[in-house]
Amino acid sequence: MQRRSANLFRIGGAIALLCPALALGASQVPPSAPVTVVNTTANPVPVTTNAPLPVTVTNPTTSVTLTNPSVTVNNTASSPVPTQNVGGGQATHLGQKASQIIALQCQEDDPCTDFAFNNFTVPAGKVLVITDVQWTIGGTTIALSADLNAPIFVNVAGVPVAVFSAITDRTGTAMGQARMTTGVVAKPGNTISLGVNLQGVAHVGTLQGYLVANE
What we know:
Layout: H1 2-26, E1 55-58, E2 62-67, E3 70-75, E4 101-107, E5 126-140, E6 148-156, E7 159-168, E8 173-186, E9 192-196, E10 201-213
Antiparallel strand pairs: 1-2, 2-3, 4-10, 5-8, 5-10, 6-7, 6-9
C-alpha cells in the first residue's frame, strides 16, 4: 500500500512540473495584431505602376517635357531643332525654299548679275550651289572652215570649276544647256562668270542654283 502511494505521488509531481512548461510554451505564440513597416528614403519600397508618369528632362540649352498623352519640345532661338523638309510645303523641286533659289544672267566674261543687272556676290554666311547653266554663242566675225567644238566654262572667283562643250556651225553659232547633279559650290564673297574659249565669239548665258548655310 505504501509502495502504491509513493508511485501516485511521483506521477502527480511529474504532472505538476509538466503543466507550467505547457503553459509557458503556449504563451510564446504572438497575438494577432496590425503590423507597421517604416522604410527610409534611402531604402524605399519598390513600386510598379501601369499608368505613365510625367517626366521632365532639362539642360542649359534644351528643355523637353514629356506628359502623357502629349509631348512638348521647347528650344531657344539660338539652339533650334534641326529640321528637314520631307513633305513638300514651301520647298521647291530642289527641296529648297523659293526664297533661296538664285537665277543669274551672264554676258561675255563679265561677272554674272541678277535680272535687275546688279552684280551678284555670294552673301556672307551662305554658299551658292550652282545646278544649271544655259548658253548661247552668237556667231563670229572670223570665217570658219568647219564646225567647231567650243568649250564653255563656269568660273567661280575667276577659276573654272565646270567645263562643257558646244558644237558650233560654220558661223560660230551654238546653243546648249547642262545640269549638274551634285552642283558646284561658290563660297561667300565669290563672283560667278560664264566664259567661251573661242576667239571673236559673243556669248550670253544664264545660271541657276540655291543658297544654303555655309557649314
